[in-house]
Specification:
about 325 residues; Multidrug-efflux Transporter Regulator, Chain: A, Domain 2; D-Maltodextrin-Binding Protein, domain 2; globular; SinI_DNA-bd; DNA-bd_dom_put_sf; DNA binding
Length: about 325
């Protein structure tokens, strides 16, 4: 039962919905829960929580841009009041599709996406504010992905790393590549205007690791300090002429007109979760989804992803 006082704190809402406080803030930010401020404090009305429970969580279809006739959509589950919810951090479309499948799986649950980069996602996992984190962090010393970073950023907590897909990272350039940009060495050309990703995301780590290998001072790159928070935004900046090139995944190049993609490095995009959670029904549902033909077929239809190892546990740390 909810208390008679109609004003609830984010902590109280988190306890009612059996989710993390971080998820409550994300729901408010996305407009899923109306809220108001008293000074610096956020308050949420009891009636709005009740309305949210009645309506169920909004479909992720709008986020992914996908559409499906209503008669072909799988039936959405009606969750009990205390149904569990998983917070999944990461920025790839794969995670949006995973969330949608999770919400219709017989053993699934509500799924809440937190659009955080690889470092931020691992930190949320470490602090207990997230259940899973999608990451793509390259270690140039060992030429491997993710494992060294998980050991450093989530110390003392046994984790499982599950492979999602191989992706291609490369440069976005204008159609026809008029400036003849070919590879990492072009970062040193002072006349070229670069646009960067924010610190802590996998793409920024990839860039900085290559700069370290090349012994190239990052401050000498024209535009290194100019940052954007998504692959699509960077590709769009290049298409508009605000930058000459940028580093990102191939998917965004397919989505933005006037962009050509120069492949540079294949990367592993993987999912990290606490090992102690793996036996729980909702996490077993995730494993079943990743192994399913329906999930893989949907990803294959999007292009850019190599799915040979999807769903495979590649490491335990």
């Amino acid at each position: 039962m909810m208390r008679e006082d109609s004003s609830l704190t984010p902590e109280e809402v988190a306890n009612i919905l059996k989710i993390s406080k971080l998820t409550v803030y994300e729901m408010v930010k996305r407009g899923e829960l109306p809220a108001y401020r008293i000074g610096r404090k956020i308050r949420i009305e009891q009636k709005d929580i009740e309305a949210y429970i009645r309506q169920g969580k909004k479909s992720n279809m709008a986020e992914t841009g996908a559409t499906m006739p209503s008669d072909l959509q799988p039936p959405r589950q009606e969750y009990p009041f205390n149904a569990p919810g998983l917070v999944i951090c990461g920025q790839d479309l794969i995670l949006d599709i995973l969330c949608r499948h999770l919400e219709t799986h017989p053993q699934g649950c509500r799924a809440f996406r937190h659009n955080a980069g690889s470092f931020a996602g691992l930190l949320q996992l470490y602090h207990g504010n997230a259940d899973m984190a999608g990451i793509h962090l390259w270690d140039s010393d060992k030429d491997i992905y993710n494992i060294p970073y998980v050991r450093r950023i989530v110390p003392g907590i046994p984790t499982v790393i599950i492979h999602l897909a191989m992706r291609q990272q490369g440069f976005y350039v204008s159609q026809g590549n008029p400036l003849d940009i070919k590879g990492w060495e072009d970062l040193a050309r002072p006349e070229l205007r670069f646009i960067n990703r924010e610190p802590g995301c996998g793409t920024r780590v990839l860039l900085d690791e290559h700069l370290y290998q090349m012994k190239l001072n990052r401050h000498e790159i024209n535009g290194y300090e100019k940052e954007s928070t998504s692959h699509q935004a960077m590709a769009s900046a290049v298409a508009r002429g605000d930058a000459d090139f940028a580093l990102g995944n191939e998917k965004a190049a397919m989505m933005v007109r006037g962009i050509e993609f120069i492949p540079l490095q294949k990367e592993r995009y993987e999912l990290v979760l606490r090992k102690e959670d793996l036996h729980k029904p909702e996490f077993q549902a995730v494993m079943e989804i990743l192994a399913s033909t329906a999930f893989r077929s949907e990803l294959a239809g999007l292009g850019d992803y190599v799915l040979d190892e999807t769903g495979k546990i590649v490491a335990e740390t």
